[in-house]
Prior knowledge:
The protein has 119 residues and is α/β, with parallel strands linked by helices.
Amino acid sequence: MAKILVHLTFGPEAPTRAALAFLVAKSAVDDGHDVSMFLAGDAVQLLRSPTIDALLGIGTGSLREHVDALVAGGATIYASGMSSAARGLAAEEAGVPIEMATPNRLVQLVLDHDRVITY
């Protein structure tokens, strides 16, 4: 199977787009692919528990359901450390297990994965 990276930069201000990125990542996990997500910019706000629990996309479903399926399926979720710091999000405050990462790590992830999907 393929290694797929989903890179998301939209946050709670675009709930349908945000949920769609997680839905696509979940679908890839369901199909047996090795999936990573990298959230940057306003997307890191999606990692707060209240947002995970409340966000619903129009036709793209519940963020909580998608996130839980990704975690259960072994996906790795990265958050931009710079974006997180600028928005006051620490790794231990996230509603799911995440790894803080640098732009250099994003570049390496792009090189390591077979496909990259960007939202």
